[in-house]
């Protein structure tokens, strides 16, 4: 096994090259380096995939016939890790079937051994062209990034808990401080954030949302920072597009750690560099992030950058789950029914669904583990699967899930970040915190022997020292 890294022109594309023949690997790397790219060479496909998981690459050149791992497997896994990466296959004569399969997996070009420098340069150029096109498509994908108009949002707040949320929201609207909005999935975090933006002094500016979970690691830097080519062509990222308004980082706990550090630097310095750029761009947007995960144990376990957490937590706000604001269920239900009546195509709009008092009481007692999302789904089921104008408690029971978690069930949510050791430490740290520092009680809760819990904690301390 041999691994080497060449540090090349900082404005070039980053290219991973994989071949189990060191001589071919060095030759291919030298040609690509001569074209101005940043090159990483790897003879071990599995190590190469680990590098792909760690940071973004623009292109991948891989041999098809390697010992221990097929080039087809590499391409398949690489495109799963970084869907936007451009892959080029390096193949010998007589491997037509494998070449065709590689194209089916998304390869953009191929070169045959022995290759010439101009063939490699041509493949690199075509990979770069494909890369720009895929990035443009990613920037235009609504699921990944969405710019929303700053309109007045409707927030149901009949409960004391939500009234307190709105009071805080109104105070924070007059500020430019970063915000971290937390709460369970479906609780209404985004609705509150849009409300804050709509009544803020920068409401005439854009609200640019980035779904951090939906963007692949390979595209995340360009989606956030934008990109600048060597010829001066500029693709504005979310941070630049949000100037004069608000940048909304949805599901911020899912951002990989390498990007967390980049964001912390940009936020603290109030400027950033486009990918491939050399001139700093001023950050002129308010930063708001949301998460349904508990970030505190991740920070303690080293899975979330402390500087970024401290920056975002300047104005923390928790949106309570629906079970803690049952006074909102009745008005929310009326609002959702009205909206369904307005937009549904299959629903008889002359039909008005009402609920008996017993039915409403049942709805108000229900735990709603999915919060407002689950209430919306209930409304859809009521519209589709019933014909009555008034629904009884028994009818409501048929529309609700047959089982629900006990009211006293305590959930601990740890986001999947790819490192099981960090996730393990985050879970243990949170249980110890909830046990008020009593490690024996925490061990009993987790079903661990105390020695096992101490072992995990010692690993945590060793990592902290490093």
Automatic annotation (TrEMBL):
Keyword Transferase: no
CDD domains: AAA, REC
Positions of post-translational 4-aspartylphosphate modification: 63
SMART domains to which the protein is assigned, alphabetical: REC
GO BP terms, alphabetized: phosphorelay signal transduction system; regulation of DNA-templated transcription
PROSITE patterns, per the entry: RESPONSE_REGULATORY, SIGMA54_INTERACT_1, SIGMA54_INTERACT_4
Alphabetical keyword list: ATP-binding, Nucleotide-binding, Phosphoprotein, Transcription, Transcription regulation
Keyword Coiled coil: no
Occurrences of domain Sigma-54 factor interaction (ranges): 155-384
MF term (GO), any: sequence-specific DNA binding
Top-level division of the source organism's lineage: Bacteria
Domain Response regulatory: 14-128
Protein name, UniProt field: Uncharacterized protein
Source organism of this protein record: Lacipirellula parvula
Lineage, broadest ranks: Bacteria, Pseudomonadati, Planctomycetota, Planctomycetia, Pirellulales
């Amino acid at each position: 096994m041999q691994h080497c890294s060449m540090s090349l022109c900082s404005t070039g594309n980053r290219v991973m090259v994989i071949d189990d023949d060191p001589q071919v690997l060095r030759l291919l790397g030298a040609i690509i380096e001569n074209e101005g790219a940043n090159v990483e060479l790897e003879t071990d496909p599995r190590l190469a995939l680990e590098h792909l998981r760690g940071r973004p690459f623009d292109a991948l050149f891989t041999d098809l016939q390697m010992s221990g791992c097929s080039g087809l497997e590499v391409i398949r896994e690489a495109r799963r890790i970084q869907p936007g990466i451009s892959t080029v296959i390096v193949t010998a004569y007589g491997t037509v079937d494998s070449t065709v399969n590689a194209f089916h997996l998304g390869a953009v070009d191929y070169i045959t051994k022995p290759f010439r420098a101009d063939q490699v340069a041509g493949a690199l150029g075509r990979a770069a062209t494909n890369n720009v096109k895929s990035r443009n498509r990613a920037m235009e994908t609504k699921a990944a990034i969405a710019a929303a108009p700053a309109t007045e949002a409707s927030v149901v707040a009949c409960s004391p808990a939500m009234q307190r949320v709105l009071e805080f929201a109104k105070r924070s609207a007059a500020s430019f401080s970063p915000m971290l909005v937390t709460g369970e999935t479906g609780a209404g975090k985004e609705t509150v954030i849009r409300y804050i933006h709509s009544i803020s002094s920068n409401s005439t500016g854009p609200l640019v949302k980035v779904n951090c979970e939906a963007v692949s690691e390979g595209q995340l830097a360009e989606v956030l920072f934008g990109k600048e080519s060597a010829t001066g062509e500029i693709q504005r990222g979310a941070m630049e597009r949000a100037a004069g308004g608000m940048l909304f980082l949805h599901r911020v706990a899912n951002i990989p750690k390498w990007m967390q550090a980049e964001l912390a630097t940009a936020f603290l310095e109030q400027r950033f560099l486009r990918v491939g750029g050399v001139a700093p761009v001023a950050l002129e947007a308010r930063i708001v992030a949301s998460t349904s995960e508990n970030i505190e144990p991740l920070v303690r376990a080293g899975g979330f950058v402390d500087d970024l957490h401290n920056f975002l937590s300047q104005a923390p706000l928790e949106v309570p789950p629906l079970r803690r604001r049952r006074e909102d269920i009745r008005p929310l239900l009326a609002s959702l029914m009205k909206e369904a009546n307005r937009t549904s195509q299959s629903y008889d709009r002359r039909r008005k669904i009402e609920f008996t008092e017993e039915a409403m009481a049942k709805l108000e007692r229900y735990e709603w583990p999915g919060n407002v999302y689950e209430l919306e789904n209930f409304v859809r089921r009521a519209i589709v699967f019933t014909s009555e104008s008034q629904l009884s408690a028994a009818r409501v029971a048929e529309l609700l899930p047959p089982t629900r978690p006990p009211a006293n069930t305590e959930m601990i949510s740890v986001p999947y970040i790819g490192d099981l050791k960090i996730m393990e430490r985050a879970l243990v740290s949170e249980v110890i915190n909830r046990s008020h520092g009593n490690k024996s009680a925490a061990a009993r809760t987790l079903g661990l022997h105390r020695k096992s819990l101490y072992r995990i904690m010692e690993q945590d301390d060793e990592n902290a020292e490093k």
